[in-house]
C-alpha cells in the first residue's frame, strides 16, 4: 500500500556564511564598499575574523560608544591574533584592560594633556615653518609625505620622548614593517618587532642609568625612569612597550591623517579656497575630516563581552566577540546629517575618530594641534599649493594597518603671504 506523499517540501536555501573581515579597503580614504549594507542593516553584523573567530560588527554610533567605554567589554579577553600592529604579548596600552591599562596610562597621561598640547603650539608652528622653507628651497614638485607630513609629527614625538630625531628615523623601517597587514612577509615583520623592541630597550636603559646617576629627567622616557608611587611606576618592559607605542602612534597615525587631510582639501579645490578665505574654519574642518576618513584598515579592535550587554541594535551575549567600527559610527545618519558629505562647518560633530572612554586616544590633544597647525601653516605659507598629479593617481596604502597616501606629489604657484 502506498503512503500518501503529503504536501511538497520547499527546497532549503543554504544560509550564507558570515563574510570575512576585515573587508578590502575602499578607494582613497573611503570606507569599504560593504559599509553601504552595514549602515542600512540592523547594527550588528556577523563576520569571521582572520583568526577564524566569529564576531559581530557594531556600527551604530551609540553602540560603538558603549563598546569602547563600558567595562563589560574587554580587549584583553580577546586572546586570538590581534588585528593590530602590536603583538599580543607586547604589553601595548591599546590591548590591555584596567587595572593594568589604568596604571600604564596614568604613568604618561600628564605629558598629553590639552594644556601641554596648547603649550606646544609655538614649537609646532616653528617646525612647520622650517619644513615649508625647506620645501620652497628644494622647489616644486615635492612629496608632501616625506617633506612635511612625516617629519612634523616625528620630530614632535621624538622631542617629547627626549630622543633624537635620528633615533626616531632609525625606527621608521621597522615601524613600517610592523604596521604591515600583508605588505611584508611574516618573518620580516617579526624581525622588525625584535629590532624595534631592542632599540627602545637600549634607549630606556640609557635614560634609566642617567637618572639614577643624578642627571635630570629630560623627556618622557627619562620621566618613566624616576621612582614614583607603585600605581604610577612602570616596569622596564612596560616602559619599553610604552615608548615604542608612543613613537609609532605619535608619528604614524598623525602623519597619515595630515597627508589625508591635505589630499581631501586639494582634491576638491573649493575646500582649500574656502579655508584660505576663512582660516577660522580650520579647527572644525580638521574634526570633520577625521570623522569622514577611514584611517584604520582593520576596522577596529575586537572586544569580548564579559556578560550579556543590551545594545540599541540587540543583545550581545557573554563571550561574544564584537568589533566596534569607529568610521561606520561616523556615518550614522541618526547622528550626522548627510553623513557622506564633507561639511567643513559641521557643528556639533561628536565623531569617535579618537576613540571614547578609557580607550580615548591618549595623544588626541597633541594630534589635534599638529593637524590644525600643519594645515593652517600650509594655507598661510603656500596658498597656491596644489596636487602635482590627478587626485585619482595618488598611491594609497592598502596593505598597512593605517591608511593614507604613500606619496603626495604637490606643487605650488604664487608668492607666499
Short structural description:
It holds the Pfam family p450. This protein has 417 residues and is α+β, with helices and mostly antiparallel strands. Helices cover 44% and strands 8% of the residues.
Please describe the topology of this protein.
Blueprint: E1 19-20, H1 35-40, E2 44-48, E3 54-58, H2 61-69, E4 73-74, H3 100-109, H4 114-119, H5 121-138, E5 142-143, H6 144-149, H7 151-161, H8 165-178, H9 186-212, H10 220-223, H11 236-267, H12 269-277, H13 282-292, E6 303-305, E7 309-311, E8 314-316, E9 321-324, H14 326-329, H15 364-381, E10 386-387, E11 409-411
Parallel strand pairs: 1-2, 3-9
Antiparallel strand pairs: 2-3, 4-6, 5-11, 6-9, 7-8, 10-11
Family: Belongs to the cytochrome P450 family.
Protein name: Cytochrome P450
Pathway: Antibiotic biosynthesis; mycinamicin biosynthesis
Could you explain the architecture of this structure?
Pathway: Antibiotic biosynthesis; mycinamicin biosynthesis. Keywords: Antibiotic biosynthesis, Heme, Iron, Metal-binding, Monooxygenase, NADP, Oxidoreductase. It holds the Pfam family p450. This is Cytochrome P450. Belongs to the cytochrome P450 family. The protein is α+β, with helices and mostly antiparallel strands and 417 residues long. It has a single domain, classed as Cytochrome P450 (Cytochrome p450). It has 15 helices and 11 strands. The chain has helices at residues 35-40, 61-69, 100-109, 114-119, 121-138, 144-149, 151-161, 165-178, 186-212, 220-223, 236-267, 269-277, 282-292, 326-329, 364-381, and strands at 19-20, 44-48, 54-58, 73-74, 142-143, 303-305, 309-311, 314-316, 321-324, 386-387, 409-411. The strands form 3 sheets. Strands 1-2-3-9-6-4 form a 6-stranded mixed beta sheet. The chain has a 3-stranded antiparallel beta sheet with strand order 5-11-10. Strand 2 and strand 3 (54-58) form a beta hairpin. Helix 5 crosses helix 15 (364-381), helix 7 (151-161) crosses helix 8 (165-178) and helix 11 (236-267) packs across helix 12. The chain starts with 18 loop residues before the first strand and ends in a 6-residue tail after the last strand. Mean pLDDT is 90; it is low at 1-7.
Amino acid at each position: 500500500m502506498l503512503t500518501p506523499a503529503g504536501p511538497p517540501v520547499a527546497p532549503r536555501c543554504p544560509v550564507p556564511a558570515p563574510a570575512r573581515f576585515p573587508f578590502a579597503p575602499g578607494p582613497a580614504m573611503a570606507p569599504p564598499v560593504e559599509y553601504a549594507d552595514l549602515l542600512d542593516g540592523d547594527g550588528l553584523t556577523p563576520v569571521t575574523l582572520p583568526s577564524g573567530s566569529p564576531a559581530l560588527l557594531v556600527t551604530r554610533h551609540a553602540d560603538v560608544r558603549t563598546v569602547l567605554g563600558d567595562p563589560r567589554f574587554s580587549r584583553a579577553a580577546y586572546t586570538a591574533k590581534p588585528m593590530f600592529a602590536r603583538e599580543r604579548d607586547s604589553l601595548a596600552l591599546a590591548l590591555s584592560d584596567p587595572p593594568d591599562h589604568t596604571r600604564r596610562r596614568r604613568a604618561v597621561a600628564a605629558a598629553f594633556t590639552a594644556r601641554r598640547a596648547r603649550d606646544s603650539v609655538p614649537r609646532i608652528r616653528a617646525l612647520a615653518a622650517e619644513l615649508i622653507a625647506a620645501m620652497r628651497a628644494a622647489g616644486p614638485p615635492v612629496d608632501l609625505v616625506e617633506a612635511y607630513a612625516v617629519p612634523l609629527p616625528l620630530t614632535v614625538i621624538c622631542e617629547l620622548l627626549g630622543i633624537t630625531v635620528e633615533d626616531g628615523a632609525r625606527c621608521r623601517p621597522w615601524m613600517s614593517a610592523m604596521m604591515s597587514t600583508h605588505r611584508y612577509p611574516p618573518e620580516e615583520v617579526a624581525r622588525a618587532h625584535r629590532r624595534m623592541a631592542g632599540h627602545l630597550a637600549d634607549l630606556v636603559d640609557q635614560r634609566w642609568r642617567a637618572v639614577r646617576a643624578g642627571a635630570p629627567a629630560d623627556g618622557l622616557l627619562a620621566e618613566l625612569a624616576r621612582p614614583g608611587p607603585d600605581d604610577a611606576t612602570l616596569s622596564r618592559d612596560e616602559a619599553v612597550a610604552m615608548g615604542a607605542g608612543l613613537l609609532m602612534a605619535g608619528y604614524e597615525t598623525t602623519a597619515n591623517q595630515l597627508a589625508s587631510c591635505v589630499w581631501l582639501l586639494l582634491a576638491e579645490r573649493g575646500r582649500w579656497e574656502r579655508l584660505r578665505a576663512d582660516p577660522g574654519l580650520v579647527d572644525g574642518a580638521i574634526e570633520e575630516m577625521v570623522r569622514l576618513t577611514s584611517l584604520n584598515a582593520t576596522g577596529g579592535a575586537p572586544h569580548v563581552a564579559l556578560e550579556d550587554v543590551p545594545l540599541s541594535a540587540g543583545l550581545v551575549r557573554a563571550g561574544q566577540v564584537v568589533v566596534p567600527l569607529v568610521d561606520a559610527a561616523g556615518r550614522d545618519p541618526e547622528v550626522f546629517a548627510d553623513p557622506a558629505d564633507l561639511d567643513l562647518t559641521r557643528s556639533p560633530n561628536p565623531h569617535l575618530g579618537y576613540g571614547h572612554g578609557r580607550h580615548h586616544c591618549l595623544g588626541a590633544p597633541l594630534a589635534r594641534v599638529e593637524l590644525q597647525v600643519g594645515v593652517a601653516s600650509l594655507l598661510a605659507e603656500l596658498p597656491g599649493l596644489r596636487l602635482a598629479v590627478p587626485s585619482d593617481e595618488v598611491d594609497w596604502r592598502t596593505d598597512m594597518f593605517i591608511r593614507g597616501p604613500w606619496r603626495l606629489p604637490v606643487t605650488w604657484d604664487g608668492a607666499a603671504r
